[in-house]
Amino acid sequence: MQTFQTYTPLGLYRRRRKEHFNEQLKNLKLVVDWTVWVYLLVPGLLYLSGWYVSLWSKPLPSWTTGLTLPALTGLIDIVMLTGGIIIFVEEADVLFLKSRSLWMRTLMRQGIYRACLQHLGKMIAITALTAPLWSRVYDMSFIQIALIAIWFGAVASFQVIVLHMTKVRYTGWRRWLRMVPLAIVMGIITIGATFWMHGQIWTLLAGIVAAILLLIMVGRMRLEMKGTFEGDVREDLRERLKLTALILSRSITKPKAPRTRTVIFRKPRKLLRHRSISNRTAEIAFKAFFRNTSTMKLYLQLGGLSIAAVALPPFPVNVIVCGLLIIMLSVLFYRSWDVFATSDYVQLVSYDAEALNQAATTMVRMLFVPIGILMGYSMGAAWLGWLEGILTAAAAVAFGLFVLSITGWIRYIRSA
C-alpha cells in the first residue's frame, strides 16, 4: 500500500522537489566553507541589524527624502521579475506524463503554488526591510505596510506566471520581443496602482482582491495551455540549474577566447608627464591591471560596494566604514602590485629597490584616487548634501593618500 501511494502525481512532485533541494544543498557544500561564512555572516548580520534599527530610531539619510514612492516601487518591481516557476518536468516524462493530463496538471498546479508562496515570502521580506521608508517617509501604518507586502506578493506571482507562459511558448528573439514590452507594461501598471492605493486601507484591500482574481485567472490559463511540454522541460532545466551555474561561476574559471586587442588602453598613450623609470614602471603596472579582465571586474565591484557601504549607513558609522575600507583597499592594491612585481616581465629587467618602491606608491595612488573621490563624495552627498560632498571627497582622498604612504613605508622597511 505504501508503494502505491508514492506513485501518485502529488507523490511524484514531492519526491522531485526533495531531490532538487538536496541537490542544491550538496552543490553549496562543495564550494562553500561554512567556517569562513560564519566569520563573515555574524559580523555582517550584527552590522545590518544595527543599521536597520538606526533607520527606525535615528534621522533618515538625506537620500531617502528624495526617493519617491514610484521610484521605490519600480526598484521592487525589478526584484519581482527575478523569479521563476519550476514544475519538475523531465525529458523522459514524454513517455508517460505527456499522455496523462491529470499528472501534468498536478505538477503544474503544485509548481504554481510553490512559486506563489516563494514570491509572497520574498515580497514580505523586502517590504520588511524597506518598512522604515514606508512608515517614516510615506506615513503608512503597520497595517498598510502588511497589506502592501501581500499586494506585492500577489503582483509578483501574477507577473511570474505571465512571463512563464511566454517563456514556454517562444524561444530566442521572439521570446524577448514579447517579454520586454510585457514586463514594462506590467511594471508601469504596478507602479501606478501602488501609488494610487497606498494611502487607504480599503483601496489596498480592493487591489489585493483584484490581483488575486487575476492570479487565479492566469493560473487557470496556464493549466489549460496545450503543446508546451518541450518548453516546460527547457524552462525547468534553466531554473533548476540557475543556482548551480551561479555557484560554479564563482568557483571555476570559464575558459575565454583568445583576445588580440585589449578593451582599454589599446594605444600606447602616456599617462604620466614625467618619464622617469619609476613612473614608466607604474604606468605599465596600471595598464596591466586594467587590461586583465578579472582584476578590472574586481576593481569595479569593489568600487561599487565601497560607495554603497559609505552612502547608506548613518553618521558616524559611515565615517568609520570609510576609514576601514580605505585601509582594506590600500592592502589590496599593494597586493596587486606584488603580483606585477613578481611577474616574469619585471624579473627580466634589473630595477633599483628605490625605483620599484616609488613605482609601487605611484601605481597604488593611481588605483585609489578614483575610488577615493567617489567614496568621499557619496558619503558627503548622502550625509550633508551635494555641495558638501566635495569637501568630504577631498578629505577621503587626503586620508587615503596618508594611509598609502604609511603602508608603503612599512613595506619598504620590511623589505630593506
Automatic annotation (TrEMBL):
Pfam families: EcsB (PF05975). The chain crosses the membrane at residues 36-55, 67-90, 111-135, 141-164, 176-195, 201-219, 296-312, 318-337, 366-384, 390-410. Keywords: Membrane, Transmembrane, Transmembrane helix. It comes from the Bacteria. The keyword Transmembrane applies. This is ABC transporter permease. It comes from Paenibacillus vandeheii.
